[in-house]
């Protein structure tokens, strides 16, 4: 696949799935903007991509803050031009018993995981509509498909991402802009290793159908396909990449 002439934004791209996606899109010709709260990590990722002879810039962005998102879009316009691909990947996870859930934590997860869909997509959609071509790929979660104990808040937020994807896809279907989502399964990322189950990742993976965790590159491959010309007649779709954990 070739993304020559395309400009892509990947949120949460300092590590994990976002970083693997940024690397892949850049390798296939896209000019990539890396957004992350981790400014040092974002800059390191952009440096790595540039050192490989590709194009990347980095910005520290809170994806739930419209002022920061708008400023980052302005930086992209100045450096690369209009945005044609958006990967809404940034998010936070949480393991907590439901009766121990407080409203402040619930609101934080919903803000980062769900409100960011509104803020980031609204910021770049005018570029896509003007070009009559665009790709929005949202990273949801298999936990929203299957349910998951101690993850009611996270699963609810990601279920909202899936519903948001379907609704916006219907609204934009005739414009040349597609909207799809990828719900990762059990993917070996720094966020997972740093979570409450980080110490038992390998044991959990051993009980899965494929007997291994997913890799960030597995997710990046699916995202790259949905961003491509080959996926131009696919919209509102949930492309599950989970090693057989859930079939739909």
Q: How would you describe the overall organization of this protein?
A:
With 248 residues, this protein is an alpha/beta fold. The protein has one domain (7-185, 216-231): 3-Layer(aba) Sandwich (Rossmann fold), CATH 3.40.50. Helix content is 46%, strand content 13%. The protein contains 9 helices and 6 strands; from the N terminus they run βαβαβαβαβααβααα. It has helices at residues 16-27, 39-51, 66-79, 103-131, 143-146, 152-172, 190-193, 201-206, 216-227; strands spanning 7-11, 31-36, 55-60, 85-88, 134-139, 177-182. Strand 4 (85-88), helix 4 (103-131) and strand 5 form a beta-alpha-beta unit. Helix 1 packs across helix 9, helix 3 (66-79) runs parallel beside helix 4 and helix 4 packs parallel to helix 6 (152-172).
